[in-house]
Queue: 2 jobs
Job 1
Amino acid sequence: MASAELAVPRAALIPGQGSSARRLIPLRGELRMRDADALWPELSAAVEEIHDGTVTFDLTGVSVMDGGILSLLLHLRAVLAERGARLDLFGANERIAALIELYGGNDRVARLVPKRAEGLVEQVGRATVSVLDEARLVVEFLGQMVVAAVNVARRPRTGNWHDTLPFVEKTGVDALPIVLLINTLVGFVMAFQAAKQLAAYGANIYVADLVGLSVTRELAPLMTAIIVCGRSGAAIAAELGTMKVSEEIDALRIMGFGTVNYLVLPRALALLLVVPVLTLLADIVGIAGGMLVASISLGVSRQAYWNETLIAVHPHDVATGLIKSAAFAMTIALIACQQGFATSGGAEGVGRRATSTVVASLFCIVLIDTLFTVLFRALDV
Amino acid sequence: MIEVLDLTVGWGDTRLLENASFRVARGDVFAILGGSGCGKSTTLRFLTGLEQPLSGSIHIDGVGAPRLVEGRPPFGVMFQHGALFGSMTVVENVALPLREWTRLPPDVVHAMARAKLRLVGLEGAADKLPSELSGGMKKRAAIARAMALEPELLFLDEPSAGLDPVMSAGLDELILTLKRVVGLTVVVVTHELQSIFAIVDQCILLDKETRSIIARGRPSELRESGDPRIHSFFNRTAEAV
């Protein structure tokens, strides 16, 4: 029997010889978890060539062994069982025997069953079913919102009105600086990009038409919705999601509150009030941004720019933008609240739902924008 | 194992415990006891280095004063509500310290984590997320994670609360076996009298009013105390501390 000293302090292992003989591998010393990194390669190397028969780890010389090392030995036993070999533990002192019992070391060795990897078709199928399920849940939630809203409309006293105003402040007033800044820059950049081309044709004054129509019909509603979605949509989903995982929503239900009425409608109403107002203000500052560029780099006076804007932009242009913005607001509220209510799984679940809210809302906003644009064109609005 | 001298616990102007001194012997199960709000769990935060003492000192053998530094943790801690990572399965939670602080191959780490889960009776829940577990299961998973690196010192914050009597007794048995077999030292914050009498070697009883330790010793001896505050705590009568 060959002998080999381990690199591990206070421990030694002597592998047996012969491929099918009964092999005895004595261990000795104190075997603790801190030595696991060094011990594992030695242990696995000692049994590497063994594919049949029985290997016995002789623990007679082991004074102390902790659970970490024992679990290494038990894992080795499972690995050997897979290969058709058997590993026995022999000579354990009373304390180690108790530990072996505690870790189930005397139980029958369970075979390691590797999990079958999921195929591509299965993955695509599961993802499709998951998306359809989510869509169904959103539609169901929309139904609940409509029912709750109708009930509140019939009996206004049942509405949670006192929570609406704080949400108006949080989602509207607090968002005002960033909405105004970004939309000013959008008008500014648009005019700046167009300035050179328009100047080449001597059509400087038409920058007012370009900026006015683009901003009121398209860019102000879209940019405002994107900001509100990233800012308030994610916040609503995270807030409701946290309430869901901490069972606050269940507590409300137990206390007899209609959760859609109490939690969702104030947020939805706040967004419905706030987003069109923000969009209207965004229209104004977007046009102002264009005016600034026109007066500086195109030599168009502010009065001329304003007059041209009034000629180009009609009330219905502004109205189409506001209609879109109201639809965007409802979309954000619906998705954010639904995602919040569907949260599970603690902090990670809350983060995942907040992310889903932003992604799904942005997708729906662009989709709705496209539909409205086509519809308005068909109606010649 | 742990030497605490003149420790003052609290924050800002609030003091929960003042000038407390006690020793935890190696291999003992040591309990910090007291009524609600007396600072038991807070004291545990100071012992584990999550907070720094307002005054006094804490010395842990092989560690010195507990300070949070990056590196292999010198002891295991089970938090009151488990503090499992929600984004990981139960077995991944237990494997995390092994993966980070050993160089063992992934399949070995996984097997060791499963062995720990088996130890606390959770092998069947290994692939579940913490959100799918009951409160008691979360605690047991947290104990498995705290023990993953086989620390010589384990801090347990209310380990038995929320467990059914059978599971609680099983946990007590586990602690006693680990103490006997690997010489584990355990500092436990608990209210469970049955557990206290079953596993605790030495304890201290904190008092909210005097912000001090009002009793120390073996629970079975303290049960016979003539002090009504101590007697009521250990005999579960209305005049609780």
Job 2
Amino acid sequence: MVTTDEKGPLTAKKKSVIIRSCDGDEFLVSESAAVLSTSLKKILEEKEDRLIHLSDIDNKTLAMVIAYLSTHADDGLSDDLKRSFDQEFVSGKEFDVLKYLVLATDTLQVTCLCYTVAKKMADIMKNKLVEWVRREFDIQNDYTPEAEAEIRRLDAWAWDDRQLEDD
Amino acid sequence: MTIAYNDDLLTEILIWLPEKSLIRFKLVCKRWFSLISSHYFSHRHILHHHHRHSRSKPEPSLLLRLSEASDYFYLQFSKDGGKLVPYHFSPTLIEPTILSFSNGLFLLQCRNVEKPLEECHIYNPITKQSRKILLNTNERYRCVMGLNLAFDPSKSPHYKIICVRAIKRRSSRALWCRERLCQIEVYESETGTWKICGEPFWAPTDVDFNHGIYWKNGIHWDGDFFDLQDNFVGKHPEIVVPGDTRTENYYGNYVESYGYLHYIAHFPEKKSGESEEDSMLVLHEPGKVMAYKFQEKSGKEIIDFREEAFYQERCHVRCYFFDISVLLLLINQLEPLTEQQLLAINNLQQSSQQAEDALSQGMEALQQSLAETVAGSLGP
């Protein structure tokens, strides 16, 4: 049963939104799912536009985020089921994919997904070499070799290269 | 747009990492170094992990010191054995000595030979942050016999320092040669004040009131304990160590491990015992560290540093063998917190605290545990 709304004709349209990725793909999303993203919620409150263009999220990443939002907007699913969906959602995903995802959650402000993805990323990172981290995050080493050696020396206890991975 | 230069997003990811990884990742670049070293980050990390550690065990770590004057070493464990790496204290601390440790926090004394002991330092080995604490001035009980730390983050974010003081010996009467009149003072970090606790008591001059073990709301020294709840000094039941203790020398000391207090009698040529299954006892023997698994009743050598240069240097002084003090500690990231953060921690802990009625069992449990330990130390 549709609840009556003062704005009348808008009610039916409000039920879904079209989101367009940076590479042009369009996704039809229920409004209840879209508003789980704080950014999308704000856009929807400000404009009556039902088409939202996201200039920095590609279609592959957007499809994943929308799958997540739709699952979490589904009132028919128990919290336990949603939790196991979250586990499934990040398991086996490449670090590269997670990087795009975490950026998308930042843009769209989906706190709970950001939390899940960040945790998974940390899990992958924790036993990696510093060189691996620099590569993955595209960071230039801005230390001099001397400074690097000194930092390593002062915290030598935390370094055990035998257990660290580079792939 | 990248993650690496988005501090907020980076914080969300790094907050999940264990302390060791964070310390390594300071080396990624200068920006990461300042992010990870920042107060904001370390406070958020504490709050985050406080919550999680209540459910999972933190990684145990070991710091060793080979003799009074030597440096401290950190023992790295891995499948293919152990390795000792030097541990560097914060450079602001001059010649620190660990007087006591409790669940990841250290109580340090910085050497100052000329003056009597007037201050100590609370130290976090991970963040290397410390706080100086001035000792009380007690005109009557002037000598500091020992300083001990009591800290259990699962119960309270506050720590206590237990200071045993004694009256300076003034007379040559026989009683004063053998015993000293002592008084206990307790510092509470919550209020930042020292309080005189319990009644004065006589203690033999040879009792070591440093290196007390904090367990069940009490500090335990060899043979004696101080109950922090009811403020009294008591004696442990006598421990009968199996084996011929008249002809064989052994070293006894207490160790707390996952809620049990153990007495370890270490015969240099034999293995000693602890009663808990599925646990590992890490022992030091002259020149090496041994891990002893109770369930398998087998010992495994973790590290042999007899060949190491630092060990060789001191080999000619025999007594150093037995000066090796093994510090069992759980490394947590903890440091004095602000009021607001304390409140947040308290809120997190309220639910878990309700389940903690262990304290009510008090000294009965001690007695039982000691009995079990004695029974358990009959292993090979």
